[in-house]
Amino acid sequence: MTKVLTLSKASSNNETAKKHNKKQTRLEAKIQDKLEQAKKGVQKATSRVAKAQSRLEMRASRLHRLEHKLAQLHPTPTPEPEPATPPVASIAVTEVLPLSEEQSIPSETPVSTAETPVIQADIIPSAEETPEA
What we know:
The chain is mainly α. It is built from one helix and two strands. A two-stranded antiparallel sheet has the order 1-2.
């Protein structure tokens, strides 16, 4: 009896090992398929990136050619002159003198006291008004 039991345990261990090996082989096959799919996906993505890079370089080259052509048509822009403003004379105040009674105030100017100071000033013409010699 002991021999029969030992053979049965050995065959049972053998069957479990075969089942385990079979299971392991199927799992390896699945993983191998996934690995192949991943490699194909990487290869596709790499080719897409290469095509996109090629298109990018072509478009950048075309852009530079068009910019160069545009630059040849329009030489470097000169700064536009500012709109002309009427010339304004500069006034340099030399001294402030008190108003004396001898000086007359125009009648249109509303001044209530005779102590309003008069500003003595020299008018300096602006650069636009200066006659060139």
